[in-house]
Specification:
This protein is an alpha+beta fold. Helices cover about 40% and strands about 20% of the residues. The radius of gyration is 44 Å and the shape is rod-shaped. The protein binds adenosine-5'-[phenylalaninyl-phosphate].
């Protein structure tokens, strides 16, 4: 037994206070421990009061013992206070923590799903890759064009019957120029040729993919908004053989070697001679079906040698340069490659369809 002052066993009191402080799990409990062992009504305070009845000698030594005991109890409580406060802080942080993994795993009804490129964009990128591999550059042009770029510069004056094939959406922007949503990517040919003349950068070997618009009624192989990839080569000594070779190379690269294809004579006001490139319908393998209107063939694009009148109009000397151009439907290419019976499926946004590619 340690020293007893005013019937209080001081060592025992210090030990009891330290034990109580260590058992405290919160600041509130620790404050209660502090009040119990150091407060006005504590045993220590009672022992202090008993000093008054002692003689001076005994009061001095008992006072020193009580002060030492008070310091020890205070230290024990302070040490515990640091731990309790740290534990309370981390409990608070834990409760407040934002669990970023929770969103992905399970906690919301429809988790965000990672998307991917649409099959039309994939097809465009694949075709661009093929042409880049053949030494072409990729160029861009406006989707909104003046009548001049979309028609007139391509040898299609007002009232030309070919305008009927490419009826479009007119934008009412007022005079002086008629403005249309472009019906094909061919006007980009004019932009490129004008730029090359202005900057003296002939020859041209470029493809120009992009969106086109027509007042076509959507059906198994038509949309009102679709995509073409235009090709333009302007160089010295170009012939129809170069054109046929380029078309064969890129269609073989995209569809594989065993497609069967044909070039059929056709008319375009801006090429002479002109042709249409067709492949055997991949839905019916040439037997005839709804997609190919029972013909067994599907047209992928038009092409031809650039008409000297077009070269002349943009300031290129047709005696020095010749060239060829083509315009293929990107959506048509995707449709035939993936055997999509009805092109409208491409734009209906049905995820069961889109996710297959
Ligand atoms: C043209 O648009 C010409 N500009 C092509 C051309 C370019 C000829 C350069 C000569 C030189 P055409 O109208 O045939 O041609 O369209 C070309 C291709 O675009 C079609 O074979 C088809 O694959 C695609 N296409 C045309 N209209 C639609 C449509 N409404 N929906 C989906 N694809 C279409």
């Amino acid at each position: 037994m340690g020293e007893v002052i005013g019937s209080v066993d001081i060592d025992h009191l210090v030990l009891a206070a330290a034990t109580a402080a260590q058992g405290a799990t919160s600041r509130t409990v620790l404050e209660a421990v502090e009040a119990e062992f150091l407060g006005k009504r504590s045993e220590l305070a009672g022992a202090h009061r008993s000093l008054g009845s002692m003689d001076e000698q005994a009061r001095k030594s008992a006072g020193a013992v009580l002060n030492a005991a008070r310091v020890q109890i205070q230290q024990a409580i302070e040490e515990c206070r640091v731990g309790v406060e740290a534990a309370e802080r981390s409990a608070l942080l834990e409760a407040d923590r934002l669990d970023l993994t929770e969103v992905v795993s399970s906690s919301i009804a429809s988790p965000v799903r990672r998307g991917h490129q649409h099959v039309i964009s994939q097809t465009q990128a694949e075709l661009e890759d093929v042409f880049i591999g053949m030494g072409f550059t990729v160029a861009d042009g406006p989707e909104v064009e003046t009548d001049w770029f979309n028609f007139e510069a391509l040898n299609i004056p007002p009232a030309h019957p070919a305008r009927g094939m490419w009826d479009t959406f007119y934008l009412e922007l007022g005079e002086p120029e008629t403005v249309v949503l472009r019906t094909h990517t061919s006007p980009v040919q004019i932009h490129l040729m004008e730029d090359a003349v202005a900057n003296d950068t002939l020859p041209i070997h470029a493809v120009m993919p992009g969106r086109c618009f027509r007042r076509d009624t959507p059906d198994a192989r038509h949309l009102h908004t679709f995509h073409q990839i235009e090709g333009l080569v302007i160089d010295r000594g170009m012939t129809f053989v170069d054109l046929a070779g380029v078309i064969q190379t890129f269609t073989t690269a995209y569809f594989g070697a065993d497609i069967s294809s044909r070039l059929r004579p056709a008319f375009f006001p801006f090429t002479e001679p002109s042709a249409e490139y067709e492949i055997t319908c991949t839905i019916c393998h040439g037997e005839g079906c709804r997609t190919c209107s029972q013909t067994g063939w599907i047209e992928l694009g038009g092409c031809g040698m650039v008409d000297p009148a077009v070269l002349h109009a943009v300031g290129i000397d047709p005696e020095e340069y010749s060239g060829f151009a083509f315009g293929f439907g990107i959506d048509r290419c995707a449709q035939m490659r993936h055997q999509i019976a009805d092109m409208r499926a491409l734009v209906e946004n049905d995820l069961r369809f889109v996710e297959q590619f």
